[in-house]
Amino acid sequence: MLITLENVGKSWGIDVILQKINAVVNEGDRIGIIGENGAGKTTLLNLLMGVLENDEGEIIFDDNATVGYLRQMDGLNLENTIYQEMQTVYKPVYDAINECAEIEKQLTVTPDDSALIERHHSLQNLIYSKDGYNTDFLIKKMLGGMGFKEEEYTKVVKVLSGGERTRLNLAKLLLENPDILILDEPTNHLDFDTLVWLEDYLISYKGAIIAVSHDRFFLDKVVKKIWEVEDTLLTEYKGNYSAFDVQKQEKLKVQQRQYEADLEKAAKLQDYVDRNLVRASTTKMAQSRRKQLEKMEMTEKPKPLRVPLKFTFDFDTKPYDEILTIENLTVAAGNRTLIQDLNVVVRRGQRLIIAGANGSGKTTLINTITGKIRPKAGRIKLGQGAVPATFDQHITVGSSSVIETIWALRPKWTQLEVRSYLARFGYRGEDVFKECHTLSGGERARLRFCEMSLDRANIMFLDEPTNHLDIYMRRAVTEALAKYEGTILVVTHDRFLMQQLDCPIMNIEGGKGVFYENFDEFMAKHKSEGFNTKQSQSKTEKQDKPNNYSANQKEARRQAAADRLRMRECERDIERLQEEIDGYNADMQNPQITTDPAKMADLWQKLESANTQLDALYEEWAILGEKLEN
């Protein structure tokens, strides 16, 4: 056993955070820690790392086990370059190599010095155990896997973004190769390629892994045991997240049945006592039953399954069909051009996911579309009737409280109505009076979604909307967006959200927008080729690697995906027009209209226009179908 927790507890003042925690970490374990934001997951990690001291119980470590911890806050040397920072992992190895060199010089003078020979042997063992003569290769391989290009190795740490520092910290930790790897939200700030690479790396990792995560794909792919932190307690489940989901529901059902059976048994005993205690002939039997009732151990009443957060996004105004048009758009950050000559038409009700590597320009693009940044070139046009709402990665808030923020949007509501509405987004009790500037990232995100649900927008622009949310709120947001009938443009690497939206994906590749029909095609393409060749491959490997698709075949596949998407749009528009035409034909039988020449003329004009559009759509649909068959 690497770690043993025995009746561990932790409190802050009178608030109990964790209590009666009993768990074991064995060699090779893959443990995912889940729970609501604020449940105590990070506190548990800090106890395991010794950052915090437990108030109760004991945490016992294997004395020979090494522990590595990825903190949410980094501890990097800001003056180092990326490569120099990675080299700090191997400082003991470099020191050993230098000392070996000095010993070898001394041995040329005193070749029979047994102490020097023994020291040299000990140092060599250390070097070889760490693969010390291959450190350059190992560093480059790790940096490549974590998405750093070779030309970035000389970048100084202090100029890196928060996401880049997180990736560098993680790269260092993986290079250290500890026996116990403790990770706090390891998938945050990772682009799609790096995320998939990390999961594959962790699956083959030899040590034990303990990870707090809200990423369902990560928890299903990497994890083999779930620790759920809920109401100050820890419950362990075997298997990945999907297995946990099934087990927990079944466990609560069994517990509920047992609880109801115990209640029924207790009621029968009590009834017997009540009826027979006063009768002389049955008093002894009643007393016996009463003792039995007093000694009876009742099954604890099961906590109800978590009430899922439920809310919706709706709109009032139906916009023009082409709700967003982007023509020859060039997007830049300072003097650096990120995306060139982008042309996109987004139609009413369509969803589009924007994906791409970190630094490819996803956030800059969506900020340009929403007018926060001026385009370097090109044109962006919102269609008539468009009512936009935005969700930014970094949410700014005012000085008011949570309840005041929402009340300002609906001043005619009563306090009860405002509080009831906030409860849909997880704000209950005294939480509604929190000052907004004190809110965590997840709390700010929930408040912003509450605001957006009241905006009644028909087009949403979202930048990493699920980043700070716990696994339960992620599910609620995903369900609400999947049911939303308006238009969505979303930057995300949340694979559960991508899968549930079931829509085209525009991946930013080499400054261009490359379209994939849906998440499945996006994943299949990634598995067959990968969007970014990792830097761990040598130039020779890159040149020798066979290309599965010619440039023409790639373009043909992308065009086919676009054609299939347009065919579905045609089918929806055909269905809509047919309904309109049926309505017009019904109106033709209405005496109030047939006796009014002006109304009849207007109706004929609408009917003719609808039929013309319908014919054009049928023709376009047929051409696209023939094109795809060929």
Concise description?
It contains 21 helices and 18 strands. With 630 residues, the protein is α/β, with parallel strands linked by helices.
Descriptive report:
With 630 residues, this protein is of the alpha/beta class. It folds into four domains: 1-66 and 178-269, 3-Layer(aba) Sandwich (Rossmann fold); 77-177, P-loop containing nucleotide triphosphate hydrolases (Rossmann fold); 322-397 and 439-530, 3-Layer(aba) Sandwich (Rossmann fold), CATH 3.40.50.300; 562-629. It is built from 21 helices and 18 strands. It has helices at 41-49, 82-87, 91-109, 114-129, 135-145, 162-176, 192-203, 216-221, 241-276, 283-295, 362-369, 402-409, 415-423, 441-455, 471-483, 495-501, 519-528, 539-544, 551-587, 591-594, 597-629, and strands spanning 3-12, 15-25, 30-34, 56-61, 67-70, 180-184, 208-212, 225-230, 233-238, 322-333, 336-347, 351-356, 377-382, 388-391, 459-463, 487-491, 505-509, 512-516. A six-stranded mixed beta sheet has the order 5-6-7-3-8-9, sandwiched between helices. The longest helix is centred in the last third of the chain and has 37 residues, at 551-587. Residues 531-552 have low confidence and may be disordered.
